[in-house]
Amino acid sequence: MSKINDEMKRVLENSIWVLATADKQGIPNAVPIHWGKVLRDDKLMMVNNFMKKTLDNISVNPNVSVSVWKEKTGFQFKGKASVETSGSNFEAGRAMVLEANPKANPKGVVIVDLQAIYLTTPGADAGKKVD
Question: Where are the alpha helices (H) located in 1-131, listed in sequence order?
């Protein structure tokens, strides 16, 4: 299994993320994520402020993809998603959002257990799985 390295963390920490899901018929849905965090080298967290279709999709198909890029460096993280509406991850995500916007109403967090990471940087290695 691929692990998040320092370069990936740099890109993740300074980028808008795009979370892609699909419903049970395979119809895709992709949404920008402003509030995300690396929990561990194999786990990402995103805060749910406005998700509806995304949560519906995860409930029937937990396979997700998260794409990020900064300048010319990009990565795609694939894994299984779950939703948490209480507990320490939720409280950490909630605090992250409320610090910047005290009027926000975070509803939960999406946790992605990573299964693979791919390079999306333009060039000969684009699409290559990162080991």
Answer: 6-13, 53-60, 88-100
| Domains along the chain with CATH numbers | 6-119 (2.30.110.10)
Q: Is 10 in a helix, a strand, or coil? A: helix
Mean pLDDT score of the chain, rounded to an integer? 96
Please compute, for residue 19, the number of CA atoms within 13 A of its CA located in the half-sphere on the CB side. 29
Distance of CA 87 to the CA centre of its chain: 19
Residue type, 108: G
3-state secondary structure at position 5: coil
- What span, in angstroms and rounded, lies between the C-alpha atoms of 120 and 77? 10
Q: Is pTM, for the whole model, over 0.85? A: yes
Tokens of 75: 């990565």
Q: CA 112 from chain center: how many Å?
A: 7
pLDDT in tens, 76-128: 999 999 999 999 999 999 999 999 999 999 999 999 999 999 999 999 999 99
Backbone phi and psi for residue 52, each to the nearest 5 degrees, phi listed first: -130, -65
Tokens read off for 43: 């786990």
